[in-house]
Structures are given as structure tokens and as C-alpha cells.
């Protein structure tokens, strides 16, 4: 089946490593893509040298990816729009894009995070700021380390939308021999899983940086999945989602890979860098777990969900808890049934 509603011309707003990689996936899937970059130097590098030298160096972008710094032009004639700016700037950007968005087209949400202050998930920010029907929003989330995908290494992902047909249309638009999307309807679960795993990956990076072993990593992944699932359930998510690609799949990839910016940041903290220095060492690329440990912790407090790993990461990032004491904090939690 190849539905008539499969988008052909897609605007990707945000030319960081994920926006650029997803633009490549879409072009490899046969779509015409316009990638909006904030900075002319990024657009120029893509136009003139077919490479995003700043965010995705060494990857040749196909001719199907055009780059533009004018979002009105990028959105003109688009029959789907992917939003690839970091979570905490999505509100500001949506406010700017809102009036130029084509009516009725699917909006593909790529950012993983929960907004500080409001506790809103990214699809909620998009719907509220854009005054949009939430059923238009398709959340893409899974084990999707950009650098691996850009190199054509196979992966799968989840496309979550309350409107199944819309998810299927996007599924057909972005499927390639190396990128296999599955559809689900649990938007809350996909978003909470994608946000929470970055915090757990930070904890795994800290553990790794301290020279602890795979038992510690496996314990963090397993208990991390448990606490993120509990939060998701409190917010109305389907527990099974957390065993899927946007849950366990993404958690394992991010907690295990040296390519993960969140895990790498955790390692740097364990090696003795302060938060600002550890962020600076990341070359300006976003590590969402740093903000998400705050917004997820706030949500957990609001919904009375116990999240000891998230709490420990928050204390390391914002309350000067030494990374070694983070492990003690977690090991000293009251004993409980699994
Ligand atoms: N890189 C990955 O492997 C990956 C995979 C899946 C999901 N994600 C998620 O995608 C989102 C984007 O991540 P990324 O990896 O592309 O980040 P990045 O750090 O590589 O790039 C961020 C992009 O956003 C732009 N930007 C930064 N602040 C902005 C602002 N205020 N307004 C507009 N644009 C702004 C930057 O110029 C850059 O183009 C994050 O939520 C991340 O968790 C990333
Ligand atoms: O590099 P990270 O830690 O931002 O993780 C990237 C993706 O979210 C992995 O799925």
C-alpha cells in the first residue's frame, strides 16, 4: 500500500545534526527537501559543498536537499514540515513559523524534551503555540544517533500520532533501506520515553567516566526504564511503549554509544569538568538531558512519581553533588520490591 497522501515536498526546520540527517533520510526516500538553517554559513556550506560542515561534517548530502535561510521560502508548497530545533527554543521558533505553516499538513516533531516551566511535551508546545489540531503532529523517536544514520547504518524508529493514517503517510515518506519507521498511537509514551532517556544516558556517562562496570550501566538502564515508565503511566502513556523503539530501543542506544552527546557529557562531568565547561566541550551541540533532568524532575514532583536517577542527575548538574556521591545517593535509596 502506498497512500495518496504521502508528502512529496518536505520542509525541515533546523539544520543541526538531526535536522540535516533527517533531511538526508527524506531525500534518500525520494522526497524533495528544503532544509531551513538559521545561519547563512550553514546554508551556504550545504548549497556550495553539499555538506553541513558545522553539524554533520564528512557527510555528502544528496541533491534532493536544498538549503535556505528564509523559512517562508522553505515552507512554500511544503506538504509536510519537520521541526528540528532544540526543545527549549521550540516555543520561540513556532511563534515565528506559525503564520507561514501550510494548513492541514503533518508536522513531524523531532526534538526530545519537556519544556521548562510549563512541563509541556513538544507536541503540546507545537499544538498550543501553532493553534493546531494535535492529530496533525507526528512524533518521531527511537534509537536514532544521527551520525550512524547519516552513514547509512540501519536503524528503526517509531512514528507516534493519534491519527494512524497520518503516521502511515509519514512512514511512507521517510522509509529507506536503512531507516525503518514503525507507527504507534501513544504520543505521550513516545515523548516521555525520548525525554527521560537523555537523563538516564547522562547517568550512564557519569558511571562510565568513573570507571564503573557494565553491571552499573545495566542497572541504570533497567532502573532508568522503570522510573521513566512510571512517569509515563502517571501521564497516561501506554506501558508497552516503553518496551518499544522509542523506549528501551532509544535508551539502550543512547546509554551505550560514545556518539551520544548526553552520555559524553556525563563522562566529562565524571572526569571533573564543571557543567559549563562540559557543555562547552560539546562544541555547542545540544545535550537535552541537562535541561530535561530539571523539567522531568518537576513533572515527577507534580505527579508524585519517585525518580531517583533523575533526581541524582539533577543534583550533579545543579546542586554540585559530586559524581561519586551520585552513585552513593542511588545506592542508599530505601529498599523496595523491584
Ligand atoms: N543528533 C541526534 O542524534 C538526534 C537524534 C534524535 C533526536 N535528536 C533531537 O533533535 C533535537 C535537535 O538536536 P540536534 O542534534 O539537531 O542538535 P544540534 O545541536 O546538532 O543542532 C541544533 C540546531 O538548532 C539550532 N538552534 C539552536 N538554538 C536555536 C534557536 N534558539 N532557534 C532556532 N534554532 C536554534 C542550531 O543552529 C542548530 O541548527 C534535540 O531535541 C535532540 O535531542 C537528536
Ligand atoms: O546524542 P544524544 O545523546 O543527543 O542522543 C541522540 C538521539 O536522541 C539518540 O536516539
UniProtKB/TrEMBL annotation:
Catalytic activity, EC: 1.1.1.94
One Gene Ontology term from the biological process aspect of the record: glycerol-3-phosphate biosynthetic process
Residue numbers binding sn-glycerol 3-phosphate: 112, 142, 197, 250, 260-262
Active site: 197 (proton acceptor)
Highest taxon, organism lineage: Bacteria
Designated name of the protein: Glycerol-3-phosphate dehydrogenase [NAD(P)+]
Job of this protein: Catalyzes the reduction of the glycolytic intermediate dihydroxyacetone phosphate (DHAP) to sn-glycerol 3-phosphate (G3P), the key precursor for phospholipid synthesis.
Glycerol-3-phosphate dehydrogenase NAD-dependent N-terminal domain location: 10-165
Amino acid at each position: 500500500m502506498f497512500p495518496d497522501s504521502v508528502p512529496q515536498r518536505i520542509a525541515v526546520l533546523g539544520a543541526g545534526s538531526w535536522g540535516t540527517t533527517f533531511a538526508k533520510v527524506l531525500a534518500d526516500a525520494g522526497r524533495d527537501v528544503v532544509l531551513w538553517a538559521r545561519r547563512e554559513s550553514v546554508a551556504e556550506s550545504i548549497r556550495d559543498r553539499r555538506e553541513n560542515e558545522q553539524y554533520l561534517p564528512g557527510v555528502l548530502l544528496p541533491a534532493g536537499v536544498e538549503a535556505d535561510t528564509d523559512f517562508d521560502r522553505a515552507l512554500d508548497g511544503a506538504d509536510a514540515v519537520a521541526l528540528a530545533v532544540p526543545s527549549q527554543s521550540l516555543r520561540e521558533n513556532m511563534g515565528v513559523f506559525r503564520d507561514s505553516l501550510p494548513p492541514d499538513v503533518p508536522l513531524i516533531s523531532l526534538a526530545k524534551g519537556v519544556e521548562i516551566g510549563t512541563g509541556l511535551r513538544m507536541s503540546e508546545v507545537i499544538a498550543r503555540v501553532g493553534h493546531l489540531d494535535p492529530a496533525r503532529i507526528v512524533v518521531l523517536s527511537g534509537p536514532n544517533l544521527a551520525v550512524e544514520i547519516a552513514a547509512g547504518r540501519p536503524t528503526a524508529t517509531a512514528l507516534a500520532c493519534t491519527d494512524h493514517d497520518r503516521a502511515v503517510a509519514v512512514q511512507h515518506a521517510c522509509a529507506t533501506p536503512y531507516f525503518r519507521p514503525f507507527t504507534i498511537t501513544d504520543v505521550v509514551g513516545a515523548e516521555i520515553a525520548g525525554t527521560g532517556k537523555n537523563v538516564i544516558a547522562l547517568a550512564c556517562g557519569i558511571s562510565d567516566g568513573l570507571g564503573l562496570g557494565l553491571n552499573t550501566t545495566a542497572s541504570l538502564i533497567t532502573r532508568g526504564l522503570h522510573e521513566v515508565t512510571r512517569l509515563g503511566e502517571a501521564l497516561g502513556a501506554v506501558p508497552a511503549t516503553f518496551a518499544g523503539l522509542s523506549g528501551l530501543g532509544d535508551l539502550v542506544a543512547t546509554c551505550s554509544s560514545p556518539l551520544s552527546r548526553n552520555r559524553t557529557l556525563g563522562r566529562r562531568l565524571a572526569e571533573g569538568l564543571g557543567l559549563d565547561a562540559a557543555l562547552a566541550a560539546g562544541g555547542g551541540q545540544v545535550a537535552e538531558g541537562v535541561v530535561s533532568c530539571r523539567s522531568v524532575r518537576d513533572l515527577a514532583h507534580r505527579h508524585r512519581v519517585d525518580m531517583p536517577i533523575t533526581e541524582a542527575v539533577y543534583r550533579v548538574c545543579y546542586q554540585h553533588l559530586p559524581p561519586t556521591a551520585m552513585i552513593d545517593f542511588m545506592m542508599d535509596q530505601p529498599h523496595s520490591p523491584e
